[in-house]
Design goal:
The complex is a heterodimer. By secondary structure, chain A is an all-alpha fold. Chain A folds into two domains: 228 residues, no CATH class; 241 residues, no CATH class. In chain A, α20 packs antiparallel against α21. Chain A is globular and about 65 Å long. Chain B is α/β, with parallel strands linked by helices. Helix content of chain B is 38%, strand content 25%. Chain B contains nine helices and ten strands. In chain B, the strands form two sheets. Chain B has a six-stranded mixed beta sheet, sandwiched between helices. In chain B, strands 2-1-4-5 form a four-stranded antiparallel beta sheet, with helices on one face. In chain B, a hairpin with a 2-residue loop joins β4 and β5. The longest helix of chain B is centred in the C-terminal third of the chain and has 16 residues. Chain B is globular. The N and C termini of chain B lie far apart (51 Å). Classes of the chains: A mainly alpha, B alpha/beta. Chains A and B meet through α1 and α4 of A and α2 and α3 of B.
């Protein structure tokens, strides 16, 4: 077993070794993104908590605890979901397991290694978000170093319990899982999680910021008592957050500690039981995915499309997309999250309904929406040319590369711009913003959609990876990272240009000075010119790369 | 110390189903040390399923498998120790070198470090992979990977070797190296169970063949007997005739 653990470390170490320029850029960008993410997360939490505690220690303490509790409960639920999903792909029928099960290694040892692996895969992303939160709590309340250490230890207890429940669920439902493809299972788990989230979201209104500025004593007391009622206090996450906030152990109710100990004992016993039954579970897990019923030939339907090669290409892309659960599953998840985002903006707490915040919200919404568009483009637009894979020679030998490139650009632009417009115009309409701001947002979104599409489609042509079939891996590869950096830099520049007239507009609106729309026109024109320049350069580079690519 | 038993592989009435589909139906065969058994049949005939059942990778509904006169279901660890398995798509840890992978396999099978190193040297010479065995396997071609995987199945000196489609993607030189190794192995009183589509390989190398079609073993015996029975001299023609008659 030690040999397998050694291999894991060796693999991890070697995946970090920089062997070429591409790996170096990829590693560097990961380190940069991660450091920025950790630092900003930490400072945001710290600023919020410090502000809350300094403003009013009692309310501030309760809100800080409540925010932390909500965050930890979300982490626990996310851990559960990701543990279910990863355990399906970790414990059953992978090429490595097929190999290990032919060796004399005992299934219990294989289970142990896979359980550990599952924990790492399911929790690393959540750990990255949790560490800044735990450090911020520690700093705000000036807790000792041992507190941070204990918090981390408690976090791992939570991970263990969540991973056990996830693995247990996947063992329990393995009979169902083996009848369906992994993509479909992921889509089902994601849809169930979103449905659960939607039910909680719609049933429970956000109340922690909804204390009116002119509230009377009765309202304040009601508000404080409402903060103490936590929905998930009996989950391991709830108990752990309570332990973290109880600086002295005697303040903690013994019953809560016993409950956590019970969770741990049950998880340990359950893990041992799963370990014992693993070989039987593994051997009985044979994929019996039913053959899909005979599908109608959708290529060239309706008949008029058969004449155009470009239309056939777009149709092919759409069919492949719609028949691949890993693609449409992620898109549906994205769309749901966007829906929650839009509804959250509309249901924003009462403080943010004042004109000042509404304008800030409108501009922030533009920035956030364009950021989402860039993320979507890197994930879905950039890999499109790479996904042609081994069929690229067929395309190159039969279609003019300019037509091919134009078709990709046009189709991607339509999808991204429609999504962007819905996001920006929809939320702005709910916020009842001035018509001129709505129009400017629409124009900027349209131009930015085009710019992002050009960047990602061209980068997809310049830096394709025809050997990779997984679109997520293509997006997170060297080309995807370069494309993401270029897209974010472009958005940053666009927002930078637009921030100036927007700021002037807000100032004039508050001072009731008449504002000339020509300022906005200048801003939009500058964004337009910059996008045009990017188009001119990247379009020719992308097209030439396609023309020159030897197949 | 594990007692040395006579090398044998006995399958009795093996039946394996996937839902309502019967992949292997009532299969029985008996092989002894020194046998090179060619398992042939069209795609989806049940060859890989049978091999996976023998390797302990699949449960089966009916029947039994005996490895060296021991029931493999009752003694899975001992059975696995006495077998080597080469799957149809080779598995290697891509961040390890070929040498590291072979070392890992040897240790998993409980070999001493010095023995593993000796065997690695031996197979690197006869299978001619010394030049690249210290590079990461992610840089290997399919043929290079296949040679390492085959060596990994031999490294612990198993009595029974299960090989699924060994010649796919191999160039003529690699094919020759692998073929020679197989023939030499059989001389050492071991059993070589080879599933293949390459009929010439079966004809050239195997003393026994089994023809699978739609989950049924439609012929088991020597190639000579089969030729006498069908009255044809070419194995390809015989194969097509047998599988056609089962359509």
């Amino acid at each position: 077993m030690t040999e397998i653990i050694r291999i894991r470390f060796k693999t991890f170490y070697r995946s970090l070794i920089v062997s070429d320029f591409r790996s170096f850029i990829r590693l560097l960008s990961y380190i940069c993104v991660m450091s920025v993410f950790l630092y900003f997360n930490y400072s945001i939490f710290l600023k919020i908590f410090t502000y809350l505690v300094k403003s009013d220690s009692e309310i501030g303490y309760s809100i800080t605890k409540r925010i932390s509790s909500i965050m930890f409960s979300s982490f626990f639920i996310m851990l559960l979901m990701s543990s279910i999903v990863t355990s399906i792909t970790t414990f059953f029928r992978t090429p490595e397991l097929e190999y290990l099960f032919t060796t004399p290694l005992s299934p219990k040892k294989i289970f142990f290694i896979k359980f550990y692996e599952n924990g790492v895969f399911a929790s690393w992303a959540i750990l990255i978000v949790s560490i800044p939160l735990m450090l911020a709590i520690s700093r705000t309340f000036k807790f000792t170093l041992s507190f941070t250490f204990i918090s981390l230890l408690l976090f791992f207890v939570m991970v263990f319990i969540a991973v056990f429940i996830g693995v247990f669920a996947s063992f329990l439902f393995s009979g169902f899982f083996k009848k369906h493809s992994t993509g479909k299972i992921v889509a089902i788990v994601a849809a169930s999680a979103l449905l659960l989230f939607a039910v909680i979201f719609f049933m429970k209104s956000s109340d922690i910021f909804n204390l009116p500025r002119d509230a009377n004593l009765f309202e304040v007391e009601k508000f404080i008592s409402s903060l103490e009622v936590e929905q998930f206090r009996n989950l391991p996450s709830g108990i752990i957050i309570e332990m973290m906030f109880s600086s002295e152990l005697n303040r903690m109710k013994l019953a809560r500690i016993i409950l956590l100990a019970l969770y741990v004992v049950v998880s340990l016993a359950g893990t041992l039981f799963l370990m014992k039954s693993y070989d039987k579970k593994y051997l009985s897990y044979e994929k019996t995915v039913k053959r899909s019923s005979r599908l109608k030939n959708m290529m060239g339907y309706p008949t008029v499309l058969r004449r155009s090669k470009i239309a056939l290409l777009i149709q092919k892309d759409m069919l492949v997309f719609l028949r691949d659960p890993s693609q449409w599953g992620q898109s549906v998840t994205f769309l749901f999250l966007l829906l929650f985002y839009g509804i959250s903006v509309v249901r924003s707490p009462i403080y943010f309904r004042s004109p000042f915040y509404t304008y800030i919200l409108a501009f922030a919404n533009l920035g956030f929406s364009t950021y989402i568009m860039a993320t979507l483009s890197v994930r879905f637009v950039f890999p499109l040319i790479s996904l042609e894979g081994k069929t690229f020679p067929l395309i190159k030998s039969s279609i003019n590369m300019r037509d091919y490139f134009n078709a990709k650009l046009a189709f991607n632009f339509i999808v991204i711009s429609v999504l962007g417009q819905i996001l920006v115009v929809g939320t702005n309409a709910f916020l009842s913003i001035d018509r001129i701001v709505v129009l400017v947002s629409m124009a900027v979104t349209l131009i930015v959609s085009f710019g992002i599409t050009v960047i990602n489609t061209s980068m997809g042509a310049i830096l394709p990876d025809f050997n990779e079939t997984n679109p997520s891996k293509i997006a997170s590869g060297f080309g995807g990272i370069v494309s993401a950096i270029a897209s974010l830099a472009y958005i940053g520049l666009c927002l930078g240009i637009m921030s100036n007239p927007t700021k002037t507009y807000f100032e004039y609106a508050f001072k009731r000075i008449e504002f000339s729309n020509i300022y906005f026109l200048y801003g939009v024109a500058a964004v337009f010119v910059m996008t045009g320049a990017i188009f001119a350069v990247l379009y020719s580079l992308g097209l030439n790369a396609l023309k020159k690519r030897s197949v | 110390m594990e007692e040395k038993r006579k090398t044998s592989l006995k399958i009795e009435n093996l039946t394996k189903t996937y839902g309502k589909t019967t992949a292997v139906n009532d299969l029985s065969l008996d092989l002894k040390g020194g046998d090179i058994f060619g398992f042939i049949g069209p795609n989806g005939a049940g060859k890989t399923t049978t091999i996976k059942c023998i390797a302990g990778l699949l449960n089966f509904e009916k029947g039994g498998i005996q490895i060296n006169e021991r029931d493999s279901a009752l003694y899975p660890d001992i059975s696995k120790k006495r077998m080597g398995y080469v799957p149809d798509s080779p598995f290697l840890y891509d961040k390890l070198t070929g040498r590291e992978f072979l070392y890992f396999v040897g240790r998993i099978y409980g070999m001493k470090e010095s023995d593993v190193e000796r065997e690695i040297d031996f197979y690197s010479k006869i299978m001619e992979f010394s030049d690249y065995m210290d590079s990461r396997t992610e840089e290997y071609s399919h043929g290079m990977k296949q040679r390492i995987v085959i060596a990994s199945a031999f490294i612990h000196n198993p009595d029974i070797l299960l090989v699924d489609e060994p010649m796919v993607g191999l160039d003529p030189k690699s094919g020759k190296i692998v073929k020679d190794l197989f023939v030499n192995v059989a001389r050492e009183d071991r059993i070589l169970f080879v599933s293949t589509h390459t009929l010439s390989l079966a004809e050239e190398m195997c003393n026994k063949i089994g023809i699978m079609d739609k989950g049924n073993l439609v012929y088991f015996g020597s190639i000579g007997d089969l030729k006498d029975k069908i009255k044809k001299n070419n194995l390809e023609e015989i194969f097509l005739e047998i599988t056609k008659s089962n359509d």
